Amino acid sequence: MENLNTSDAARQEFQSVLKGKNFMTPDILGYYKIKYGSVELSTGKGFSGGTMYGVTVVKEGIHNHELSKCVHSKNEAIEYIKTLKK
Q1: What pLDDT score was predicted for residue 10?
Q2: How far is it, in rounded angstroms, from Cα 7 to Cα 14?
Q3: Distance between CA atoms of 38 and 10, rounded to whole angstroms?
Q4: Radius of gyration of the chain (CA)
Q5: Residue 27 to residues 36, 53, 60, 83, 86: CA-CA distances in angstroms?
Q6: Bridge partners (DSSP) listed for residue 53
Q7: pLDDT digits (tens, 9 = 90+) for 16-74
Q8: N or C: which end of the chain has fewer CB within 10 A?
Q9: What is the pTM of this model?
Q10: Quick check: 78 and 72 in contact, CB under 8 A?
Q11: Using an 8 Å Cβ cutoff, are 13 and 35 in contact?
Q12: Paired residues of 78 in beta bridges
């Protein structure tokens, strides 16, 4: 798995649109630049107690619900973020 570099600029862009923590995945792992926006990768415990990862997308200055998703592995989350960078 190729690592992505977190970005302070991505964090600032993301937090200018979305404030606070996601209640399902409150532990932030990093922020990443994507084409036309930024992504927050976070983690937390699902309803069944397993670890889940949230990929929350801000694109063109708005929270993009359609591109945001929840997955069950960090590798899957990073691979998804890579697709958003293209």
Answers
A1: 95
A2: 11
A3: 5
A4: 12
A5: 24, 9, 24, 23, 26
A6: 43, 71
A7: 999 998 889 999 999 999 999 999 999 999 888 899 999 999 999 999 999 999 999 99
A8: C
A9: 0.90
A10: no
A11: no
A12: none
Check residue 3 and give its pLDDT.
59
Give pLDDT, residue 1. 39
Tokens at residue 65, please?
Answer: 């619900």
Tokens 């590798």 locate to 75
Per-residue tokens: 42: 């976070």
Residues in the chain: 86
For residue 18, the one-letter residue type is: L
Of the candidates 20, 15, 22, the one whose C-alpha atom is nearest the C-alpha of residue 61 is: 15
Give the helix ranges, DSSP H, for 1-86. 8-17, 74-85
